[in-house]
Amino acid sequence: MTRPVCLITGASAGIGAACARLAAARGYDLVLNYRTDHDGAHRVASDVERAGAHALLCPADVADPDAIEDMFAQIDDEFGQLDALINNAGIVDHAASVTELTHARLRRMFDVNVIGAILVAGAAVRRMQAQGDGGAIVNISSAAARLGSANEFVDYAAAKAAIDTFTKGLSDEVAAEGIRVMSLRPGLIETGIHAKGGSPDRAMRLSGNVPMRRAGTAEEIAHAALWLLSDEASYITGSTLDVSGGR
Ligand code: NAD
């Protein structure tokens, strides 16, 4: 029996890398997308291949529609199938008030976190529809979509809220074809994204605000994402799952 194929965007680090390692252990072959972190992506590819998975590395900026098309052409050539997607690539910028947000920052925030994610999901759905045997998509949103992130990442929060609404719309569109679409809202998770947001100690500093009094791990998000993809979640679609230590 052929192994199912899962595309993970942003798979070279953090939550995406943890999802890739767990997906390999659960029997998936993998398409590992990332932007520029070749070393990280090769480390993840070695790990998943040691676990018995075949891995295709696809560096591509999800904000670039041509790069997305090229990535899917490579998936078609290499595997000729796509069964699951973890739509995970995402960025933050430094903490800022709304009055400081520039057009360039907003453009990049929405190009990567919203438009890129929607284009990747659309291309994945086209493959799943052509195969005709269903599929599953987990869009990685954020607790920020619900909290608003005032005075910090309000643009990021608005982008992630768009992902939650997109998830509901897409799930309604494709549910009858057996394609399930969910969003997962991580809370505060210890990954490198906080350093990129200009605040390396952010996770540690804010963990006191989490009811469980700690940041989560990328592996805890991966377990939730792989469960949503699995047949154990076969009657779940259009839902948003908070994995946030109660935050
Ligand atoms: P990270 O910075 O550790 O990893 C991000 C990954 O995305 C990397 O593999 C990077 O190469 C990739 N990436 C970034 N921009 C890209 C682009 N334009 N095209 C392709 N790949 C790109 O981040 P993380 O913390 O693992 O975050 C993963 C997802 O989880 C993001 O969508 C993020 O918004 C979300 N999230 C994270 C947290 C948290 O606290 N870490 C909380 C809520 C939501």
Automatic annotation (TrEMBL):
This is NAD(P)-dependent oxidoreductase. Residues 4-209 form the Ketoreductase domain. GO terms for molecular function: oxidoreductase activity. The lineage of its organism: Bacteria, Pseudomonadati, Pseudomonadota, Alphaproteobacteria, Rhodobacterales. The keyword Phosphoprotein does not apply. InterPro entries: KR_dom, NAD(P)-bd_dom_sf, Sc_DH/Rdtase_CS, SDR_fam. SUPFAM superfamilies: NAD(P)-binding Rossmann-fold domains (SSF51735). Keywords: Oxidoreductase. The keyword Oxidoreductase applies. Belongs to the short-chain dehydrogenases/reductases (SDR) family. It comes from the Bacteria. It holds the Pfam family adh_short_C2. It comes from Sulfitobacter alexandrii.
